[in-house]
# Entry
Amino acid sequence: MTDATQQRTAPATEVIPPRRTVLGWAAFAFLAVSQLIAVRLSPPDRDMGHLQKIMYVHVPAAWSSLIAVVVVAATSSVLYLWKREEKYDLLAASAAEVGVVLMSLTIILGSIWGRPTWGTWWAWDARLTSMAVLLLIFIGYLALRAATDDEDRRARWSAAVAILGAINAYVVYMSVRWWRTLHQIQSSPATVDPAYVIGLRLNAIAFLLLMIYFVSERYRTARLERATERALEDQALSRRGGGEGGGGGK
Amino acid sequence: MNNLEFVVAAYAVTWIVLISYAIRLRRGETTAEEAYARAMQEEPR
# Structure
């Protein structure tokens, strides 16, 4: 086997994760059923009326976005800095992108909920502001990755930003306890009326499944893109090496 | 106090964002798969 052949076949050993089509359909179907059950079963709230039903999309979107950026993106970033394995960097980037989508959705839904209940689309409240800062940190994370060509530097710098974001995520979570805010305290099965617990739990599971599906699909695409880049680089090097007498290699 | 239009808007926005992102992911994945297949089929010169 020649050097050129070895270089060309190397990317074929890349482990590309399988598509998660079934998970995607199942997650969307579960979300539809969960929303139907939650909306049908929960009585109108004494103060908010039917507006309470926005909780079933706003709160699970917020939880899943924080899980994406803290549990997946920041944890993978720490693992990357520790083990220096590419898969952790790609997983962190995939989760960060999904986190940005879900955080944006959370803020939009909060705004739709805030208008009729608080009388305003937006307030510079501790919870809303800290969430907006977290969103900006992870938009910055994605911008940094897009602007940095060197793979190792991109991975190290973005890992640092993800860890910084995780610290801010803790501020987001605690903001309603640390400061007097317009936003209510965290909605959870422990703090909401028992009539709303089942709907909240079902929708939280549905959003969690969707988040897992999105991250796994994005991660698979990232692995494919990286494998393609490697294959093309290896081919270019082998052609160059062949032209210069077979001395091409990394 | 009903404000049902806000409830409908919230659920509509949720589905639009989630389905749009799922479609975008699937398209990106298909493009990446095709590029990967082409790269693997390239013959060495």
Observations:
- The first helix of chain B runs from residue 4 to 41.
- Chain B has a mean pLDDT of 90.
- The helical segments of chain B are 4-41.
- The CA atoms of residues 7 and 13 of chain B lie 10 Å apart.
